[in-house]
Design goal:
The complex is a heterodimer of chains A (235) and B (844). Chain A is an alpha/beta fold. Chain A has seven helices and ten strands. In chain A, helix 3 runs parallel beside helix 5. The longest helix of chain A is centred in the C-terminal third of the chain and has 18 residues. The C terminus of chain A is likely disordered. Chain B has 844 residues and is an alpha+beta fold. Helix content of chain B is 54%, strand content 17%. Chain B contains 24 helices and 21 strands. The model of chain B has no long low-confidence stretch (mean pLDDT 82). At the A-B interface, helix 1, helix 2 and helix 3 of A face helix 1, helix 8 and helix 9 of B.
Chain lengths: 235, 844
């Protein structure tokens, strides 16, 4: 199987006054299509920065990210946005719903952006909301929903464009254990159903353990890369 | 790019914000309303002037001369038309025997015919037809009302007592303002010489009005009169010229009002810019999410551009409607100054311009935050950070945006006032004002951060901290409110400054009654009446009338036909009223040369002193020779000194002063000034003098000041009415800016209450914040207005400006109260409800 995501010599630095802080330091890895991979590490280890770089939300200082065979480096912001719209889904720790849109409208956004017919999109969004158990809350605004419900709307939004790869940043970090488990199940089920590649950033090792592969990050380096079906490979 | 999604998103995203957006829209509504009202009114006015052009003059041609017409001129006029009407206009005292009141009046002695176009409106209506036959008088309605007189009462002019036939309500081509400086009185021309006023030194204006026969070409007559005018001293006006003069004056007034109204619109623009800034700041996360799921930078910008445009359009539409309504009220405001009846109609051109301007201002001012939207990174979904939107814009982008705004403002101002230089200065002045206000805002924020006394109690510290905390309203409030205050306060202070210069009434050393046109044989008599009444003559000045015969040895006729001359016509042809004395008076200072007190040798040219203003208009320099025609006798003179004269005092001042020893034998009359002790004493001496010497005119300084004050009040009211739009816009923008921060304020208030703060502590913090903001906005506005007034006084009116601290103090109190009320209204309903309920309700 080919790699859907390839990261080569990726480095990201931040300037803080006269100091240069290297948050992601010369990282290399590839993720095979259809697999799930958890990026774990303590707070401040650089895992969210790495996720941002992989999804084309940020630009590296050096190195490259190749997503579905497309090198993101030379692409403009708008070209990257287009790549995300076509192939990428997102689930965030803080849900990131648009507060002025209803649940169903939030879910519809990615397909509407493609210019697809509203009626068709609305039907698809309704199906997805039903799938995540919110069929009766389609016209509620985010503030009228609980945290778990908001995250379910976010999951429905993430899957509506049938992404080839889903990036999830601490998807259960803001939820209680029971709701968290429900959300985990939803993500993995939809992932399996749609044969999506899953890249998950978490510090919850139990959640990471459910993935096919775990990349441990420490101080901006890959500390360990564990393939669940293979013996551990230490970098 | 999927435009349908962009429009859909713009619509959906605005749903929960429309209430907030309405306040920003209101700023545009008021600005556009002011614009549309004024421009529509201008269109109405111009159209009325065109329609009533002939009524403006009342005839096809008016010829005027301050002596009887030369036979040549009269013959020519007779050849043009047989329909002629003559008028003799002069200023004289009128006595109302019923009340014993005297008043310096503008007398017009008329014969039949005039006006040929339009009618003189009187009360009773037929008085205009009967007064000539019954040998009566028409008198301004205002003075009749003031003195409680009615038609049938009498009025004495000179030696003749006329019956008042009716009250003058409206004269074609004249506005109410014409009667500000003395009531208008119409009497029959026939027998006017019996008043005894014509020979006794009064200035007479001989006027003839002509109605052309069918098919007359006015241009031919104008050309002929122009040629005759080169050698003969008279003035003439035809319909086209009068229309142009009136149109020009009105266009200047409306341009000025337009600019004041435009400031309201610009304030609205600043309001839009600042509120969209705050609005976008709240939308950063939404934009980041949309960018994350694939929206392009143009799409996200377009969402908010559509919202701003729609807001501008709806605001401009409502504004245009309201402006059309306000337009109905404007004629009431200015009718006293306008010589035509204004016909009202909707000016679609103005409405359309208003719509375009409203939308353009909304878009142009929203460009700053909108361009910043393009720079919002999708990364903000992962890392929430406090973002300064304006810092997202590069220096070049900012420079270009300021360029666009500056060009747009200048362009519009140019379109309004038709003078590119004035438009550039308007923009620069506006920019400077904003720069100063903005700079002050930065200073306030820095100072409040630095100067935070730890000894102050909690409420004061929080109130002060609110001035610089994120999402503060300091800049918005200081800019919008400060600008409004600057504008209105400048108007007040300038008005006060102008009134101050003429308010001599309370000053003991200045005269308050001036008597003119006292004949040589009356001088002794007038002086003794003054002394009998127990008053003291302050000045008794002889006056000799004379005309120019030659200047720099060139005869006047030659100078007049010289088209390359620099000397002004009025200065060459006027009748000079000069005096002679051996010393300067306190209103004069010698600028250059030597003032020569007296001469004994009349064979040499007489050394005279000329006022500095006249030097320029006569195009002469020190030492130049002038030959005067003193009532038939030539007198050679040379300019030995140049005087600066303070004309703003109520005593007689002169262009030309002769030394003692020359003019004493010439026919002369006198002007006398008196200091009276009370209005009653003034009235009593005036009555006695007018009854004994009807030709003597009296100017009661107190009365003149009242008239001027009344006049200025009316004008400033018009300006303030338009200026009020700026204040309203300022308040709306302030309310808008307060509403934008409502959620944050409420969260803070709720948080404080959750942590145990009492209701009045929370209110106190807010009151302190708004009082501080109000005081600072008012103070900076007032400081700027004092500066502006001082500059106006120095450069334009040539007056030293002393600010009136009472006015300033009252303004500060009112303004601060307004700010506090708006601020508190903003958090209404928060204090009595449970914290959680509020947070839920305000959540979306």
């Amino acid at each position: 199987m080919s790699n859907i995501l390839q990261v080569n010599n990726l480095t990201r630095e931040f300037k803080s006054g006269s100091k240069v802080l290297t948050v992601v330091n010369n990282i290399n890895f590839g993720i095979e299509e259809g697999t799930s991979c958890a990026i774990v590490g303590p707070s401040g280890s650089g895992k969210t920065t790495l996720l941002g770089l992989c999804a084309g939300l940020d630009r590296p200082n050096s190195g490259e990210v190749i997503l579905r065979g497309v090198n993101l480096n030379p692409l403009s912001e708008d070209e990257r946005a287009s790549v995300r719209n076509q192939h990428v889904g997102f689930v965030f720790q803080t849900f990131q719903l648009v507060p002025t849109l209803t649940a169903i409208e939030n879910v519809m956004v990615p397909l509407e952006l493609r210019g697809e017919a509203t009626k068709k999109v609305r039907v698809r969004a309704k199906e997805l909301l039903e799938e995540v158990g919110l069929g009766d809350r389609t016209h509620h605004y985010p503030t009228q929903l609980s945290g778990g419900e908001q995250q379910r709307v976010a999951i429905a939004r993430a899957f509506i464009n049938q992404p080839k790869i889903l990036f999830a940043d601490e998807p259960t970090g803001n939820l209680d254990t029971e709701t968290g488990e429900y959300i985990e199940k939803l993500i993995f089920d939809l992932n399996e159903k749609q044969a999506t590649t899953l890249v998950l950033v978490t510090h919850d090792l139990e959640l990471a353990d459910k993935c096919d592969r775990i990349i441990k990050i420490k101080n901006g380096y890959v500390d360990a890369d564990i393939l669940k079906t293979l013996p551990e490979v230490t970098s | 790019m999927s435009w349908s999604w962009v429009f859909k998103m713009a619509w959906r995203d605005s749903r929960s914000n429309r209430r907030k957006l309405f306040l920003y829209m209101a700023a545009i509504i008021v600005g556009v309303a002011a614009q549309v009202a004024i421009t529509s009114f201008r269109v109405n006015l111009n159209s009325s002037i065109n329609d009533q052009a002939k009524e403006l003059l009342g005839a096809d041609l008016e010829v005027e001369r301050n002596a009887a017409f030369q036979p040549e001129l009269q013959t020519y006029l007779d050849s043009v038309s047989s329909e002629q009407s003559k008028m003799l206009a002069f200023t004289s005292m009128a006595l109302f025997p019923k009340t014993g009141t005297t008043r310096l009046s503008q007398i017009s002695a008329m014969d039949g015919g005039f006006p040929y176009y339009g009618t003189i409106e009187t009360e009773p209506i037929n008085a205009v037809d009967t007064y000539l036959e019954e040998y009566g008088a028409l008198v301004d309605k205002t003075i009749l009302t003031q003195l409680e007189l009615v038609p049938g009462d009498s009025i004495k002019i000179g030696f003749i007592t006329y019956k008042i036939s009716g009250a003058i309500i409206d004269v074609p081509g004249q506005s109410m303002a014409n009667s500000f400086f003395g009531p208008r009185i119409f009497i029959p021309l026939d027998g006017v010489e019996d008043t005894g006023l014509l020979e006794r030194g009064s200035r007479l204006e001989h006027k003839t009005y002509l109605k052309y026969p069918e098919g007359t070409d006015p241009n031919v007559i104008e050309e002929r009169l122009d040629v005759m005018n080169d050698t003969m001293d008279f003035r003439f006006d035809d319909v086209a010229e009068r229309r142009e003069e009136v149109g020009e004056a009105i266009s200047q007034l409306s341009s000025f009002l337009n600019l004041i109204g435009f400031i309201a619109l610009l304030l609205g623009g600043i309001g839009i810019a600042s509120s969209i800034f705050v609005y976008i700041r709240q939308k950063i996360n939404t934009v980041a999410v949309l960018r994350c799921v694939g929206a392009s930078s143009n799409q996200t910008m377009a969402i908010y551009l559509i919202q701003a445009t729609a807001m501008g359009f709806v605001g401009a539409f409502i504004g245009a409607l309201s402006g059309t309504l306000v337009q109905l009220y404007l004629p009431v405001l200015v009718q006293d100054f306008i010589p035509v009846d204004i016909e009202l109609f909707i000016s679609w051109g103005s409405v359309f311009t208003g719509l375009i301007t409203g939308v353009a201002i909304s878009i142009i001012f929203a460009l700053f935050p909108l361009i910043a939207v393009r720079k919002i990174s999708p990364l903000f979904t992962l890392r929430s950070a406090e973002i300064n939107l304006s810092k997202l814009l590069s220096v070049t982008t900012r420079f270009i945006l300021f360029g666009i705004v500056g060009t747009a403002i200048t362009g519009y101002a140019w379109f309004m006032i038709n003078d590119i230089l004035a438009a550039v200065f308007f923009t620069l002045g506006f920019a400077l004002c904003l720069l100063l206000l903005g700079g002050f805002a930065v200073l306030v924020m820095k100072a409040s951060r630095k100067f935070m006394p730890s000894s102050w109690n909690y409420e004061w510290r929080q109130g002060l901290a609110n001035l610089y905390r994120p999402n503060n309203q300091t800049t918005t409030l200081l800019l919008t409110f400060g600008l409004g205050v600057t504008l209105i306060s400048s108007l007040y202070l300038t008005q006060d400054m102008l009134l101050g210069t003429i308010n001599f009434d309370g000053e003991d050393d200045l005269p308050n009654l001036a008597l003119f046109d006292i004949q040589y044989d009356q001088n002794e008599g007038v002086n003794s009446i003054i002394e009998e009444k127990g008053l003291v003559v302050m000045q008794n000045v002889p006056i000799v009338t004379m005309r120019l015969q030659s200047v720099k040895n060139i005869p006047l006729e030659e100078i007049l036909v010289d088209t390359s001359r620099n000397a002004r016509r009025w200065a060459l042809t006027r009748e000079y009223r000069s005096t002679y004395r051996d010393s300067l008076v306190e209103t004069e200072t010698i600028e250059s040369g030597e003032f020569i007190a007296s001469v004994t040798d009349l064979s040499n040219p007489v050394p005279i002193s000329v006022s500095s203003d006249l030097m320029e208009d006569l195009d002469v320099v020190l030492g130049d020779s002038i030959v005067w025609d003193v009532q038939g006798i030539p007198i050679s003179s040379y300019i030995s000194s140049i005087r600066t004269v303070n004309w703003q005092t109520p005593q007689p001042n002169f262009f030309v002063v002769f030394p003692a020893g020359v003019l004493e034998p010439a026919p002369q009359f006198f002007a006398t000034t008196v200091r009276t002790t009370s209005p009653e004493a003034s009235l009593s001496v005036q009555q006695k003098i007018v009854q004994t010497y009807p030709n003597v005119s009296a100017i009661d300084v107190g009365q003149v000041i009242n008239t001027i004050r009344e006049f200025l009040d009316k004008i400033t009211f018009v300006i303030q009415f338009i200026g009020l739009f700026s204040i309203i816009t300022g308040l709306i923008v302030l309310a808008g800016s307060a509403a934008t921060s409502r959620f944050q304020r409420i969260r803070e208030a709720v948080l404080l209450r959750t942590l145990g703060a009492k209701q009045n502590q929370v209110i106190k913090i807010q009151v302190i914040e708004y009082v501080l903001l109000g005081v600072m906005a008012s103070l900076i506005g007032l400081v700027l207005s004092v500066g502006a007034s001082a500059l106006l006084g120095y450069f334009y009116f040539d007056i030293e400006f002393i600010p009136n601290f009472t006015i300033l103090g009252i303004e500060v109190v009112i303004l601060v109260l307004l700010v506090v009320i708006i601020g508190l209204l903003n958090t209404r309903g928060v204090h009595s409800r449970p914290p959680l309920e509020i947070l839920r309700a305000e959540g979306v």
